[in-house]
Queue: 2 jobs
Job 1
Amino acid sequence: MTTSQDRSSRGSSSGQSLVELTSRFFLGGLAFVPTLIVLALVGLMGYECFLFFNEVSFGDFLTATEWTPQFEENRNFGIQVLLVSTLIVSGIALLIAVPIGIVIGIYLAEYAPSRLRVVVKPVIESLTGIPTIVLGYFAYLTISPVLADRVLPQVRNLIGLFNQEFADSLSLAPFNGLCAGLVIGLISVPVVSSLVENGIRNIPDRLREGSAALGMTKFETLLHVLLPAALPAIVGAVILVTSRIFGETMIAAVAGGAETVLRFNPLESMSTMSAYILNASLATPSLDSIEFRSIFAVGAVLFLTTLVLNTAGNITEAIYRQQVIADQVAKVRVADNPYVALPDIRSLIVAGQQDGFRQSSAVRRSLDWVFQGISLISVFLVAAFLVWMLGDAFLKGYQQLSWAFLTSLPASARDSEQLGIAAPIVGSLWLMAVAFAFAVPVGVGAGMFLEEYLPRLRYGWARKVNAGIEILMANLAAVPSIVYGLLGVELFVRLLAGVTQGRTILSGGLTLAVVILPLLIIATRSALRDVPNSLRRAGYAVGMSSWQVIFFVTLPAAFPSIFSGIILALSTALGETSALVAIGAKAFVSFLPENVLQEFMALPVQIYFWATSPDPVTQKNGAATIVVLAGILLFLNVVALLLRSGRSKLSRL
Amino acid sequence: MNTQINEVRSDIGEEAPAFRLEKMSIAYSGNVAVSGVTLNIPQKQLMALIGPSGCGKSTILRSLCRLNDLIPGVEVSGRISLFHEDIRQMDAIAVHRRVGMVFQRPNPFPKSIYENIALGLRVNGYRGRIDEMVERSLQQVALWDEVKDRLRSSALNLSGGQQQRLCIARALSLQPEVILMDEPCSALDPIASLRIDNLLNQLKQYYTLVVVTHNLQQAARISDSVAFFNTNNDNGRIYGTLAEYGPVVQVFSEPQKKETYDYVNARSN
Ligand SMILES: Nc1ncnc2c1ncn2[C@@H]1O[C@H](COP(=O)(O)OP(=O)(O)O)[C@@H](O)[C@H]1O
Ligand SMILES: [Mg+2]
């Protein structure tokens, strides 16, 4: 591989090297932005927490058993209340996500025929592309009633056989932790399954052949050889998904409810940490109130928890990848002594005495089929959930869809018959424009610097720096977006109010830029990494200097992949709800925004406000908005997919 | 060198062969890799398979123990019998047990030395004492004295030659009749391979061994008989065929075919 030293030593004229230097410093500056974001996050959160703990003692924060910021007289801030709810909802989600995710991951890695795999994998992974507000809405409006009316009576009957009193006491609140946990668990399946699949695929085939040659079935190979070898990858996957689940906001807020009471019963309403942040932000408390500060205190707990989990998970995964490589090399190189006399082995030989083994291969082979059956059931469950959800939204909303619905403003907030979604559509377009105007140059530039100028950091102590940067990026990508929402409130709405005019499109767009920046950097880096080095060498061979190779050879070659990364980031940003709620997106504006300093609505936020409305027509409008948003996202994802497959066809030529 | 003198046996075909291959052809997703192989592999001898890269030696070896079952799209035609039984009618697990395989690169499991051998025994429902069989197997490959004090340490800490002998021991522990080896020394240094050669010379008195090798000197040192495969180019379709086979002395010094003569002499100079 060409190192950057010999790349950079080729600048010929002094004008050339000036451009070289400028581009290097400029891109290097962009690459520093993520670090600035981390510093801002830590600094601003730390500041608000400091103010919070000036008023509330840390001891009370840890020991109080009530969370009542709204009471003037007897305010209590006992984090236990929110922590317990978060743990219960997350626990339910983990019980779903981990077993199903591991089974599907194993199935995709070891069993699925390739034709089935190319269908199953995108279906499972499309779950991560659905805006969580849509899923929260589905959990609350559809799953919760089904559980209450259909499932609960059956469960009651069953339990009644043993304990009638307990059975009678069971009832499911409309908002409840169970539903939130179930749906969060289902959408987290792809996170686990793709990490587990990669972990198992990384194990070299030599081990599979070795165990097959010893008469082990596929399932036995899996159980005794592959899974133990992939254990660190699986542990890493579980840690990473735990952090995702902890930070999940919209599903928890919509389906779990807002009651901040210390409860252990998941059948009742319970507010997780992230749901509290969202609900408290909705009330737009004054920026100097204790309620406002309490949001940051909870945000800090959430941020630190996910940070610790992510770091641990990413380090575990990184160590695993190292280990897999290291295991391919024999460690001790002791020269063998060929002169060792061979022992007489005549007495040891037991060739061909097969009666020493039990005959049980029918039972043994059936385990392979049992496992495949379980896998297919799991895949079916996830796919059925997806179809049910999309079908439900479509059936509820399609009648409302019309040209007028797309293009009209609401006549008044009360008259639901005349609601249209022109304002949120235009608001979302503005937000995307602002977010991408900032995030694309910074993200692509930073990605270029990290990938093209920093490769010298691949050995020695500096390799650790590079590994650290990767973990930093992965961590930034995994910070719950509600936490970025808080950063946006503090930084853009408050500190930069002179520029942004407060809760405006500009603030919202900048916040979304922060949310998608890590995704863009990661996508750019992996796109550049896939560009073959021979192409770069060809550039140098015709006398290009380092920056010319980067801008005229590498970047164009990587462009389709980068572009598909941008589109995926766009679909993330379009579905982002919680950060915008925190920034203060409106439930209703009666005009189309004309510049970035106006208040705004956005499609997913509109869904949030409409879907939970008690009025059935407004609810239908919410469903119709879901159909619109899902349609746009589906289109974007298909475009990204085509771009990527088009590229892989090109590279095969 | 104290390389054991290879007593050449020329009794091919007198005893019942371990394997009998009749008009065997193997294709990967429709692309023929080897075609029309008819070959008897004598028991309790060592047969070396030689030939240029890509002529299908590994493919043949893998189908002898039904490891090709793992690869989707493989079609095997013709007949392979192990002591008169068609192996494709037999239970795959039984075939794996009766026919062991050792691979080009040592592939111990990332487990302890002990566990590498015990695992196969346990999974296959071994009735005897596992500790005892682990010791026996390690002794057969002359590894016992080197590792008996660290049976619980990772097999990955062994040297390449030791790892390969562990893999042979692992195969021996299932008490097979045949052991197949695909270039077992090509990833080892010369001294470690010499040790393996010595080991094979001893083991072939008790087991049927089939060894693929690119090293003709090794073939001459260890084998009783040799099968030479060659690649054919049939209008751009390239596949392997068996050119000739026979006792080692015959193939090396009085080859029947010009292609064999060319290969044997080009390589050994
Ligand atoms: N898993 C496989 N899938 C498709 N083709 C294969 C596979 N393994 C081997 N081949 C093809 O079969 C032919 C014979 O290969 P192989 O048996 O490995 O030869 P040798 O071991 O003699 O070098 C080659 O053309 C090779 O490309
Ligand atoms: Mg081969």
Job 2
Amino acid sequence: MKVKEIARLLDARIVCGQERADYSIDVAFASDLMSDVLTLKNDNVLLITGLANMQTIRTAEMSDIQCVVFARNKRVTPEMIDLAEDNDLVVLECRYSVFKTCGLLYEAGVEPIF
Amino acid sequence: MAERMQFEYNVDGGNFTRAGFASSEIKKILKKLNVDIGIVKRTVVATYEGEVNIVAHAYSGTIYVDIDTERIRINLKDEGPGIPDIDQAMEEGYSTASSQVREMGFGAGMGLPNMKKNADEMHITSEVDKGTEVEIVMFLNNKE
Ligand SMILES: Nc1ncnc2c1ncn2[C@@H]1O[C@H](COP(=O)(O)OP(=O)(O)OP(=O)(O)O)[C@@H](O)[C@H]1O
Ligand SMILES: [Mg+2]
């Protein structure tokens, strides 16, 4: 599923990487625990999280995650956007809860990792 | 490419805004050297876990990077409380992380085991009240 379709489905705002929203995501993972995200081996993972800080973006960078959805109106700071931009990430801000975000994506056919 | 390259980075304990800076620089270097992307990912994830451990658990540290045509060697050395029982620290789920560390999304007790999974070799030495040294080695030529 293309990132821009995901943004539409979630009624989410693309706050970084609009011009990269054309690529496709295979699988998604939801977690507020970066320790857990760092154990993933998959490529092309969409991360859904309620944890909005610099380490969320760093973790995405280290794990080669290219798209992060911040659920439940979590604010992305300018500093986070700068770092995301440096790493060619696409960042989405969404007002739905993590639960609803995951439900909509699952229903639309995005695959879980485990 | 030079036969051998060495770099070092300082890491401040407690400074979560900067945590990951060194690992990010290392990632850029490895990509520039055209290291296999799978090896880059394993190296960088392991290094980042180690860097976050210095930030989360120690006072200050240095990351030494040594790359030659055969292997990448990364040594994460810190001044800090040390680890009294390394076998216990290596167990999945064992953590002494503070609530501040947990709020940052860490402290699940998965970092050291994950470093071991990602590295080709890993060695830890530690002295209580002095510090900890974790070395990871990644081989560049023989694929597993
Ligand atoms: N550099 C270090 N200095 C002192 N203690 C450490 C250091 N690294 C790890 N430890 C100790 O080992 C424990 C386990 O480390 P590990 O990285 O596996 O988990 P964690 O850092 O607590 O959580 P996570 O890595 O999942 O975020 C830590 O909670 C801490 O007690
Ligand atoms: Mg850790």
